[in-house]
Specification:
TIM Barrel; 2 domains; five-stranded parallel sheet; Urease, subunit C, domain 1; binds zinc ion; 12 helices; alpha/beta
């Protein structure tokens, strides 16, 4: 048994905060008690508390949009064989823990990679966050990201889409993922194909998510009833209402779009400096990210007010960036108008519910797994504190200890 105490404790349910708090965890890594320090030290007089002065105890973070073995962005990407991809993934997973992320949902990686990582985790060959995954993403021939062979499976027509879903289930996928929009208004899959994917996934007991940024793909994804819709960058208020009504969850992944917009601005600047003229194709692609950032900035608060469920995911694609900057995603939600407690819930309780694990982790309450993040300071006053990671516990075991 261990007893942790801190100045504040955020349960993750979007409401409850305890001051001068304590949490008790048993040998199995299950939370047995949460309350004030006075209550718990009285109840467990034999336990010597580990004190985190000036800190906040909260649930470990959940990142619902990760590509854990993403190597395409490496300048030396041709060197990456299966072994190197696995080592890269293991290094990314360790980094995720150091950022307070205790659960990830991988939404397309090399065929079989996540299955091996989950197996290695089970065999204790790997210390890593909990992993849920889709195995390969499903796209139409020539669809979004088609060059990333191995991580994506092309399929055409409702029955081939169903076959592709079945292949992912056979490969151990917990979820199914489709991609149906690129940077134009032409939707990729037809409505019939999207409907078939959702029906087949649900029939086989899997939830399904979809990459849809543009119109009319967004509407088609809502009509098909995907459990989570990723990015959904140019969603209208009316569509957010429809999602709320149907209980579909929005994973906006703003951190990556804001990062890519910044990156695009610097590319466009350097192009303009060097040639005085901009390459047209490049300008189109880069201005997509700048427009995307603008759409999030202008619409996030209005979309949020419809009551649509929002969950945190990051989708980092640039090299040399932390793989799971959930703290950044939460900070953006706060910057754009969300209450800090609610933004934290997007990466804890809500995200756990999306994974159908809302009874198991993602909240600090008796009976839940002790996936705990301790940060220096109070994120409810300054959301940037989420980056000051002091210690991370997974199933009650310390998996990362910061230096501050
Ligand atoms: Zn992605």
């Amino acid at each position: 048994m261990k007893l942790l105490t801190a100045d504040h404790l955020v349960t993750g349910d979007g409401e409850r905060v305890i001051e001068q708090a304590a949490i008790c965890v048993d040998e199995r890594g299950v939370i047995t008690d949460v309350g004030t320090e006075t209550e718990l030290t009285e109840r467990y007089p034999a336990l010597e508390p580990s004190r985190y002065d000036g800190c906040t105890i909260m649930p470990g973070l959940i990142d619902l949009h990760v590509h854990i073995g993403y190597w395409y962005n490496k300048p030396d990407f041709t060197e990456y064989d299966g072994t190197l991809k696995a080592l890269l993934a293991a290094s990314n997973l360790r980094e995720a823990l150091s950022l307070g992320v205790t659960t990830i949902r991988d939404v397309a990686s090399e065929d079989g990679l996540c299955r091996s990582l989950k197996y290695a985790r089970k065999q204790k060959l790997l210390v890593s966050p909990r992993i849920y995954d889709v195995n390969q993403g499903i796209i139409m021939t020539g669809g979004h990201g088609w060059q990333l062979k191995g991580s994506l499976r092309e399929a055409n027509g409702p029955w081939e889409v169903r076959a592709a879903v079945r292949e992912q289930v056979r490969a151990g996928a917990d979820w199914i993922k489709l991609m149906t929009s690129h940077r134009t208004h032409t939707p990729e899959f037809t409505q019939e194909e999207l409907d078939a994917a959702v029906d087949e996934a649900h029939r086989l007991g899997r939830k399904c998510c979809v990459h849809a940024s543009m119109q009319p793909s967004i509407q088609m994804a809502i009509d098909a009833g995907f459990d989570t819709i990723e990015h959904t960058t140019f969603m209208t208020v009316e569509q957010a209402r429809q999602m709320a009504e149907k209980g579909l969850v929005w994973v906006p992944t703003m951190a990556t779009f804001f990062q890519l917009a910044e990156h695009s601005r610097s590319i466009l600047r350097s192009q303009a400096d060097s040639h005085g003229l901009l390459d047209e194709a490049l300008q189109l692609s880069e201005s997509f990210f700048i427009e995307s950032e603008k759409a999030y900035r202008e619409n996030f608060a209005k979309l949020m007010e419809t009551g649509v469920k929002i969950a945190a995911g990051t989708d980092i694609v640039l090299d040399q960036q932390p793989i799971t900057p959930v703290a950044e995603e939460i900070a953006l939600m706060v910057e754009l108008g969300m209450e800090p407690l609610r933004a934290i819930r997007a990466a804890t309780q809500t995200a756990a519910e999306v994974l159908d694990q809302g009874h198991h982790f993602g909240t600090l309450a008796p009976g839940y797994q002790a996936d705990i993040l301790v940060v220096q300071g109070n994120p409810l006053v300054n959301i940037a504190c989420l980056k000051q990671v002091r210690e991370v516990f997974l199933d009650g075991v310390s998996v990362f200890a910061g230096t501050n």
